[in-house]
Design goal:
2 domains; TIM Barrel
């Protein structure tokens, strides 16, 4: 979702008490509280990466057909999951900017005509499948536009204030959005039917669910259960960061790691904070709770700045390698491979401008490593994550990922000066350099350039 007031890092628990944050109604009678659902992650997702597509800004045309021409290039990059930002028509009442927010939905069962037709989208999904990729779509279940078809047809489905007027989601500045009331069973059914529409009609492979934490988890459990009846291997990503969401979702956002990365780049936090974060995550989440790792996305790029603004030119690659090698599924956002150094406008046309593909090789190699090395696979499919001690713990981060005969040794210098260090843990086996600086594990001491990194893989 687009910029809003202090909600982005909120969890479901922290929403309790807000008039529009619907998580507090979990125990309301008659709203499918007895749903029994056991989530099962699709087998195909065990070693995937994910790529977010901003259709409007991807090409000068801003259409599905124009984007489809990029699919072979993304396949060459090793992209597995294509996440399409909302494909639905955008509301006109209270519209922001000239084109409006992607997340102000006018009709859940129609295609945004600016992007093309439903057949165009079907062909896009079909071609992605032919190339061996999966497609999920952004789903905005928390609110609608003010001219959504349900406003007139079912005005009681929207949240109202004490005077009977519909309201925007509480705590936000989303004046182009009308909040939905999940106390209404009829709304829940209609929303699930709309999700089923796209699975049946276009054969999509799942959903990225916008501000999922603002909607009762029992709704998502019910939606997942119904969709599983039609296509049991769909993948569900929640824009949420709480363990509760893993009752229904395969993956949640690792916002805390994003925050620590940003603060480390600014000098506000250091490796002590990073190591503590991994310890906290290990206590809070189970091994089956897959987390999405990222240094940018549509929200961060527009509202907080590009990764080059936030992290600095020299540090971007190091942090991108980090999110690929720690536990979780790595995200690439539209234009990262270019690289895109600007902030994309959110409510108006602002094309990326592909042509150089200066980071394509790096992302391709990272995707290949993720796919081929079992140690880096997702959740319980993946290997152990062992933070290694070294003689320069204030600036150098060292760890291994290991499973069966697969081992990956990673070293990072998270500082603007060259660093020298030794490992204090004994490393068995021989390793080959895969990415970054040329380092031999036979040497007693190592050097990394400012913001340097080295990824080594075991010689099987």
């Amino acid at each position: 979702m687009y910029h809003f007031i202090s909600l982005l890092t909120m969890t479901a628990a922290s929403c309790i008490g807000m008039s529009s944050c619907k998580t507090h109604s979990e125990s309301s009678a008659g709203l499918m509280d007895s749903i029994q659902y056991v989530k099962s992650m699709p087998e195909w997702a065990k070693k995937c990466n994910i790529y977010e597509v901003n259709t409007r800004q991807y090409t000068p045309e801003g259409t599905f057909n124009a984007f489809q021409k990029h699919l072979p290039r993304l396949k060459e990059m090793g992209v597995d999951i294509i996440w399409m930002m909302p494909i639905n028509p955008i509301g006109e009442i209270n519209r922001k900017g000239s084109l409006g927010s992607y997340y102000s939905i006018k009709n859940y069962e129609e295609i945004n005509p600016e992007y093309g037709t439903e057949n165009d989208f079907k062909e896009l999904v079909k071609e992605a499948h032919r190339l061996g990729m999966h497609v999920i779509i952004d789903w905005v279940a928390n609110h609608t536009s003010w001219d959504n078809v349900w406003i007139k047809q079912h005005p009681d489905w929207h949240t109202k204030d004490s005077t009977g007027n519909m309201i925007i989601p509480a705590g936000t500045d989303w004046h182009d959005a009308a909040d939905l009331n999940y106390e209404k069973p009829e709304l829940r059914k209609a929303m699930i039917d709309a999700m089923l529409y796209w699975v049946k009609k276009t054969d999509i492979d799942g959903f990225r669910c916008d501000v999922a934490f603002m909607i009762p988890i029992n709704f998502w459990m019910h939606a997942r259960k119904e969709i599983d009846k039609i296509k049991p291997d769909c993948f569900f990503l929640a824009e949420a960061g709480d363990p509760l969401q893993h009752k229904a979702f395969d993956m949640t956002y690792d916002w805390p790691l994003k925050d620590v990365i940003n603060d480390m780049a600014k000098g506000k936090k250091n490796l002590v904070d990073l190591v503590k974060l991994f310890g906290d995550e290990n206590k809070k989440f189970s091994p089956n709770d897959l987390r999405m790792q990222f240094i940018t996305n549509h929200d961060l790029n527009t509202w907080d700045g590009s990764e080059y603004e936030r992290l600095g030119d020299k540090a971007v690659d190091a942090f991108n390698v980090l999110i690929y090698t720690v536990p979780g599924m790595p995200l690439t956002y539209t234009g990262q491979e270019e690289p895109m150094i600007k902030r994309l406008k959110f409510f108006d046309k602002d094309t990326v401008g592909f042509g150089k593909f200066g980071r394509k090789e790096l992302i391709t190699k990272l995707n290949q490593l993720k796919k081929e090395n079992k140690a880096l696979w997702n959740i319980t499919y993946g290997g152990s994550f062992n933070i290694l001690k070294n003689t320069n713990p204030g600036t150098v981060f060292t760890f291994t990922r290991e499973k069966e005969e697969n081992k990956v040794l990673c070293m990072f210098n998270f500082s603007s000066k060259e660093q020298t260090f030794r490992l204090l843990n004994e490393i068995e086996g021989t390793f080959n350099n895969y990415l970054g600086e040329n380092i031999s594990v036979k040497e007693p001491e190592y050097k990394l350039k400012p913001w340097g990194y080295a990824v080594l893989i075991s010689d099987k």
